[in-house]
Amino acid sequence: MNLDELAGKSGEWLKGVGPDSDIVVSSRIRLARNLADYPFVGKATDLDRAEIEKSLRKNVLDTNQQAGLSYLNVNELDSLGRQFLVERQLISREHADSEGARGVAIDTGERMSLMINEEDHLRIQVMHSGFDLDAAWERINSIDDRLEEKISYAFDARLGYLTACPTNVGTGIRVSVMLHLPALVITRQIEKVFRSLHKISLAVRGLYGEGSQAMGDFYQISNQITLGKSEEELIKQVADVVPVLIDYERRARDFLQREGHENLHDRVSRAYGILSTAQTISSEETMHLLSSIRMGVELRLLPELAMGQVNELFIQTQPAHLQKISGKVLDTADRNIARATFLRHHLGRDNTRGQHEEN
Amino acid sequence: MATFHITELAEGKPHEVHLCKDHAHAYLQHEEDTPAQSPNLAGVLAHQLAVGQTAEDLSKLDQQSCPVCGITFYEFRSQGRFGCPHDYTCFTSELEQLLLNIHGATDHVGKCPKRSPGLVARQTEMIRLRREMKDAVAQEQYERASELRDEIRQIENEASGE
Question: Under an 8 A CB cutoff, do B110 and A229 touch?
Fold first, then answer.
């Protein structure tokens, strides 16, 4: 797998298709698994880690031949390459920043990624576009079943799958749905929503796992507990609140349109104006303005743009992506210029309309 | 006067505070008041230990270690990560309350592997055997090392032959 080639494309989960994809960007499920006969990663010697990596790499590739997996040795990637995978949500920040033998297997559509030697020996992740948890569960469950035929997982009859951190023990499952909630942010209802989610033990994070000040108004809702409820129950717990959140967001958008259509339209148009003409722009400002554009696309205020195209811009204007796309290392100032150039090009003011790559 | 040792995990880095009883309560109370913060492991653990233990109890507990991977309870509570699957058995009495605080449950419901848990537990023994073998080699006790190697092979054969 060539990362430079990957930079110009986007994963299936960004396509902006699938149920409720105007508000729900993606549905992701992750399973944490460990081999029974090795210490957890934190206590593993270099030799242990190398053996874990070798054994899991073989079994992961053998049991997923039809998926056309590519394997990346994360330890041998430079920091730009690792950052690039984090931006694409294919590896975690922790996986990128740690040391020693570790890797990731990724399918061509970037729907599945299997991280080896992250916090746990194996972290299986499946990510689908839109609100599509059932299909994601079906896929990840069968990946896990096939692996389980070859591997002895650390498992206890009473506690379930054993993980390095007791917050993941039991099912080892983390179910998360990423939503775009700009209207709830504008109408200042988002904090209230979070508080009620915490009460039913659901966690809320930003696009890259950051705290409540989320970039681009993206929020990931996920289960907090992993023990004492079945995988299906935990999925349902997350799945049940998503339609409620979608409904709140739609109502907030209706309210904004009804009470001040000009203001809303103005906000979207100004965002478009800046992004399509700026000469230098920070990542933060880009995310903020792209959020308005994304909402504008959904409200049909920007008919020339497609949802998938806007989703891609969020990822492709991230620092490592810009550097991969321009083929060289850039400092912050140069990145801001490259970002503005990229945005002008893709939002059609550089006389290049209609030349978007077909992904 | 009892002192409470509270370990916080912020951004993955442990930070210790030592407080008297009243201050410990105030400190933990303050933690609970912080809005829109999801409970983390260190916070839950700190709360649990601060409520139930004196400094002496805690230091005794801290020195307990797992016979399989060698991790001490102190290492676990400062890093928030276990060293091997056997730690769940080894630290079971401390864990019980911790699991209740985190998950509200202590028993797994859901998917189970088809392999027998007995064999899986045997395989976890290999962690200890490999560690002892390495030590035996380092101390030039080659006879002991070869016994251990045979034992490892036997478990490997059981696992692959099932």
Answer: yes
